[in-house]
Write a structure and sequence with these properties.
The structure holds 2 protein chains of 2 kinds. Chain A is an alpha/beta fold. Chain A is built from 16 helices and 13 strands. In chain A, the strands form 4 sheets. Chain A has a 5-stranded parallel sheet. In chain A, strands 4-3-5-6 form a 4-stranded parallel sheet, with helices on both faces. A two-stranded antiparallel sheet of chain A has the order 10-13. The longest helix of chain A has 17 residues. By secondary structure, chain B is α+β, with helices and mostly antiparallel strands. Chain B folds into 2 domains: 148 residues, PurM-like, N-terminal domain (60s Ribosomal Protein L30, Chain: A), CATH 3.30.1330; 166 residues, Phosphoribosyl-aminoimidazole Synthetase, Chain A, domain 2. In chain B, 30% of the residues lie in helices and 23% in strands. Chain B has 9 helices and 13 strands. In chain B, the strands form 3 sheets. Chain B has a 7-stranded mixed sheet with strand order 8-10-7-11-9-12-13. A 4-stranded mixed sheet of chain B has the order 1-6-4-5. In chain B, strands 2-3 form a two-stranded antiparallel ribbon. In chain B, strand 2 and strand 3 form a beta hairpin. The chains are: A alpha/beta, B alpha+beta.
Amino acid sequence: MKYVDEFRDPELAKTLLAEIERLLPKIKTTSQRPLQIMEFCGGHTHTIFRYGLEQLLPKTIELIHGPGCPVCVLPMGRVDDCIALAERPEVIFTTFGDAMRVPGSRKNLLQAKADGADVRMVYSPLDALELAKKNPDREVIFFALGFETTMPSTALTVLQAAEDNVKNFSLFCNHITTVPTIKAILDSPSMQLDGFVAPGHVSMVVGEEPFHFVANLYKKPIVITGFEPIDILQSLWLLIKQIAEGRCQVENQYARVVATGGNSPGLAAMASVFELRDYFEWRGLGSIDQSGVKMTEAYSHFDAEKKFSMPNLKVADPELCQCGEVLRGAIKPWQCQLFGTACTPETPMGALMVSSEGACAAYYNFGNLQEIMTLKEKSIS
Amino acid sequence: MNSSPMRKRSGIVRGQSIDMSHGSGGKAMRDLIEDIFVGSFDNDLLAPLEDQARIDLSLLTAQGNRLAFTTDSYVVHPIFFNGGDIGTLAINGTVNDLAVGGAIPLYLTCGMIIEEGLAVDDLRLIATSMKTAASKAGVKIVSGDTKVVERGAADKIFINTSGIGVIPAHINVGAGNAQAGDVVLINGHLGDHGAAIIGARGDLALENNIASDCCALNHLISDLLKACPEVHCLRDATRGGVATVLNEFARASEVCIKIDEKALPIRAEVRGICEILGIDPLYLANEGKLVAVVPATYAQVALEAMRQNEAGKDSTIIAEIFAAPKETVILKTIFGGERIVDMLVGDQLPRIC
């Protein structure tokens, strides 16, 4: 398939891996202290597992799977709010598919649907707006979530709803921001990261500029990266080249999609509809300042949080969950005491087991074969 | 069905849509059955329209020593799609469930639950599809039942078909028979049905021309078994796709199945849909895909026999079987990396970004 197969070429992969091997002797690493590189985005995590990339890399490079899966980091209290909204008889609650299985404290949206709530899966917020126009006697709420990647489409939908004077449409806004979260990771005391694979589609919206602080202030190399296996290998090569040459820069491997200045009409729409929250709660990571957005005063009549009362309770993560440590790269998913036993994709306890982009689900589904087999032996015996 | 004598009478159903009277047991129901079902399914065993079909045992025992008996319900939405409809599915699905046991499919029953408001013309189309599919597969619909339910109690039409077939004495296929050294064959492209249904639902605004692969596999299986009676396992990959069938084989046979990603036959259009939605074609539904496990020494004979049949012209080897790690399906990626291919937890949910 054109524009896809080129980026999955095994020969090209071999060349890149050989180049990476060639650079490594110039960097001081040991197997006790390997190079730690974080891919922030769940889409990258998915690709790494899907193509078995980790097994192909030298042992002195360790990939840390970051918190960039918006479904995974959604706190339980917010899911409970979704369910309270969905269970109102006048409401049609619309959501992206992979948010349906995120556990709340009592149930998830799939179970709420089975219990009679009108929950519908959509592929775009515009589908939700269309549904509102077709059902004028119902309130259609769109469960808006995701990083900057999905914000422009939500923002444009709200602008469209305003223009069409649709009164029965609102957002339950759970959009989160990338930059404050990367900063929180960099500020965490146990942080040892040597470089970042930066999210490609977030960058497509925000451009290169917001990542400069990583290179300038924190002196870490960072490469904006696409989502095909060759993209990731090329970025790792670029990162290792920077480290070997003692440079710290923002580089753009995904130039075929990411413009230096980002997507200005998208950013303009976001600026009129959304503003930063003082703080937002993340599952596994806790509260992070300015890491989420809410709706601006001008569009507050589309804000489900203003239109309806919600439980709005903070629900603590299950005590034994070690999602936070996995997210910070302190432990590997399979080192969590719940992994594969109490916490599986069928019955996720922790956030990272929920979506296929979560690090734990990726390990569980696609497997670091050796480790999974050991666990399997243990559970059988 | 109503036990009083019925006749084949065409064009007597009045009105344009099915209403509650068509399920009432009275005259309207009788007209519906005589016009649409008896007209379409016409055969010697159905014709007496008793409450049950009566089958001569000697006809069965002449063909084998075991009876295969299966049932399946069809609730597909939408009921018409590129390459078939709910009627085609209802026949081929049950025929295939019999055939993958090594059975010769013979007789089917048909239970219909119709939501009031279904267009009579749609019901006629579905019955015609069933007739065509049944005659292609060489099976007879010998008994039936019709119920009409209120709007909202069903989604247009649900069909249940049960079927019986006979397994010849020398045939012994089973999910638990796979052994190290066997190979896995498939009769063509993965995921066409799933992709056709996604297209027919239309809620993605993705246009495609992919037709469902819906077809009966019994003739193909018969050709395969004739050429290679040593076949170890047979199953048709429906919901859950090829990945699910291979997991079932790996568990039942306590073996490791290693899929070669490079060898998987997937149409460019189907790959395109999967790429856009973030779903895996290995788990996409099929309705005419046979997964066969045969000893490696018979692989070429089996492949050639399958390729001679229209339903098997694109047959190919996709995986090999090893002794360990037991009960595991592994995909060898195009890069030479390996990953586990597990059963799905639920439906594949599209990823958001």
